[in-house]
Design goal:
With 248 residues, the protein is an alpha+beta fold. It has a four-stranded mixed sheet with strand order 2-1-3-4. The protein has two domains: 140 residues; 106 residues, no CATH class.
């Protein structure tokens, strides 16, 4: 096989022209396109990295905010529970106070009713005792007993100071009478001895009047215009009944 130099040279020239054309119109644009795509990819990667970074920051912020919200929610729940517990305890305390107040009121009312019942029973018992005592005293009332009590009254008169006796005499100087009340009625002999002792104590001009007073039960009283000196079972019984009332 023979090679023609010109032909080989022309083919070489054609090859070089083809290479130049390819490099000029195909290879360089292709390299530029590849480089552009590489830069676009790098930009896309950078943007994706930025977006991922922003997303990570957003996720971190969201997580932080979520934790804050969870903490706030938990705090609100705790406060609500505490408020409910406090209100519940206050309600229980108020209920206990009301129950205690009602119990104290009931106890006070029961105690008052018990005291009133006891007082009523005491009054009835004292009244019954007084009635029975009056009946018993009325059964033993005699002139001798009245005379004995009158003697005690006259002894009390004799024991007064001269000044006190003078004051009693002065009360009788205006013509007033000294009333001697007794229960039962005194006999004539007792009345005579009584007048004698009264005039000896108060003066010979003493005017004496005798009367019977069944309210005394048994006893005697010297009734002056401004005072009374006496001893009777009525007063003794009244004092005894009053002591019974006080003692319940």
């Amino acid at each position: 096989m023979e090679f023609d130099g010109w032909t080989l040279a022309l083919q070489a020239i054609n090859f070089l022209v083809l290479v130049w054309i390819l490099q000029r119109f195909l290879y360089k644009p292709l390299l530029g396109l590849i480089d552009q795509r590489q830069r676009a990819q790098q930009d896309a990667f950078a943007q994706a990295a930025e977006r991922e970074k922003a997303a990570d920051a957003s996720r971190a912020e969201y997580e932080s905010r979520r934790q804050e919200l969870d903490a706030e929610r938990q705090g609100m729940l705790d406060e609500a529970r505490a408020a409910i517990a406090k209100e519940t305890e206050q309600g229980r305390a108020a209920a206990r106070e009301r129950a205690n107040a009602e119990l104290a009121s009931s106890r006070s009312r029961i105690e008052k009713e018990r005291e009133e019942a006891a007082a009523s029973l005491t009054r009835d018992a004292v009244a019954l005792a007084g009635e029975l005592a009056q009946r018993l005293l009325a059964g033993v009332a005699t002139a001798d007993v009245a005379g004995s009590l009158l003697t005690s009254v006259l002894d009390r008169l004799d024991a007064l100071t001269p000044e006190r006796k003078q004051a009693l005499h002065t009360d009788l100087e205006q013509g007033a009478k000294l009333v001697v009340a007794s229960a039962p009625a005194l006999g004539d002999d007792l009345r005579a001895r009584c007048v004698e002792r009264l005039r000896a104590a108060l003066g010979p001009d003493t005017q004496v009047e005798f009367t019977t007073d069944e309210a005394l039960l048994v006893g005697a009283e010297l009734r002056f215009p401004n005072t009374t000196i006496g001893y009777c079972w009525r007063d003794t019984l009244a004092a005894a009944l009053e002591e019974l009332r006080k003692d319940g």
